[in-house]
Write a structure and sequence with these properties.
- By secondary structure, the chain is an alpha/beta fold.
- The radius of gyration is 22 Å and the shape is elongated.
- A hairpin with a 5-residue loop joins β2 and β3.
- The strands form 2 sheets. Strands 1, 2, 3, 4, 5, 6, 7 and 8 form an 8-stranded mixed beta sheet that branches.
- The chain has 11 helices and 15 strands.
- 31% of the residues lie in helices and 24% in strands.
Length: 355
Amino acid sequence: MTVPNELLVYCRPGFEPDLASELLEKASGLGWQGDVDVRSDAGFVRFIAVGNTPVNALHRRLPLASLVFARQSLLALPPLRLPREDRLTPILEQVVASGWSFDSVWQETPDTNEAKALAGLIKALKRPLESLLKKRGALRRKAGGRRLHLLWSDGDCVQLGMSFPGNRSDLVGGIRRLRFPHRAPSRSTLKLEEAWHEFIPRNQWDERLGEGMQAADLGAAPGGWTWQLVQRGMHVYAIDNGPMDKELMATGLVEHLREDGFVWSPPGRLDWLVCDIVDKPSRVASMVQRWLVQRWCTEAVFNLKLPMKQRWQEVSRCLSGLESALAEAGVDAEVACRHLYHDREEVTVHVRILD
């Protein structure tokens, strides 16, 4: 029987070393040892457990939502090299040997231009592959929502992984592509919109992103993030020495204050703080920490701009410091951090005060 002794984790190309460092540190903290297969700009990382040990338990204890640099996390079998004259038989044989069953099949590629060229091959294989899997009883109607993923890195190399409801991204490739609203002042608006999709269940938007709420946008100009807040009907304190978008100001929902976002304090407790200031991540984290410890807001979304080296280590330091400060101040809060699709050299942090 083929044993799933790997985690196959997708990421943005160029961030493989950061994801690998995160996986090794967090797996070790859970008592798991393994090696990582890291290839430059591949768009994925393989964590391979020591020995022929199934990693089902690690996959459950290291959920996708807890990983900063991951887009998708799969329980995986060893990669397959396929003969071009018959790509399907090795795939079918590995599925049968694994004993896996599932009710859907997704064929994916890393988020690279080279891999996207495989779209024609994937389309051609879809029907015959699914037909063969159904005949062998692996693909069936009711299999607990389990999904088989085939990650094609080139035309003769594929890796099979399994995902489970509640511990996966239900977006192809783990990518949430959003349409840029043409009236928004800047493309940065998509970062805040994606953050809301990522961190706030859609059925809670009216309650937690409701009309009449008050928010502050630190480093607001020209207003990409403020625009999102205004679209939800919030009143916004836009803090920035730079100019704000005239159309946005005409809504009457924005109070533009030409002040330093690092020292400004609100007139009372607000519902939201958002911040996309370009500065050292430690300085931004310390500023937001002050807001949260003082309970100047109920929820916050902010970005940490990352250095080119040791990005995971910097993120880990900032998050640990924030969580420690909140605990010391007796502030009960949820803290989450993800590298979103519309982020570049940065990660997005969400904090919600619960008491």
